[in-house]
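Give me the 3D structure for LTMD1 protein.
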Amino acid sequence: FPAVYDSIRRDSYPAVLRGLALAARSLPEPRPRQLLQQLCSQVQGGARPHLAQLLAVRSLFSGSPLVLNRLQVDHVRALSQVLFLTPHLPAVLLRHRLLSHVLEIRHLDRALLHLGLGQLSEEELRAACYLRGLNSTHLGRAECRAWLEQWLRLSCELQASEASLLAHSMVLLSLNYSRPSE
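Predicted structure for LTMD1 protein (182 residues):
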């Protein structure tokens, strides 16, 4: 079942990236707009983003058209599917549920960081990756751990007001993870 559910989740990834690229075009500041457009095109081209690239655009996700409450409804629906939330609700409920789930993952991340990844069994490690968007069925334990460490560094660096970046990172960090880093 995880492979089937991951396939359903991955079907929404292109819509999330299109929505992000479209929202980037409406940003007023040229430099952040270029950074975000470059990030989107890199991921669409098969590359994996670096943590520094995500942190460089973090401010865009807390007060611009990229904050969860201001995203287009189709974009919110696609992000909801990434988290396995039903997209068939009114926009206000979609946004509320999406924010609630992303903040819950953020709280779990802080607890996981406090516990330490070394405490997790291989099954727990894979489940933690899966919850955050990565299908780890074809990855080794070391790859799962490396991905989760990167995720935790990002998640624990972000503020609650930057939850939109965390939701988008489920796609940005996992889409090309099985491919070599560029």
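The chain has a mean pLDDT of 91. Let me know if you want a second pass.
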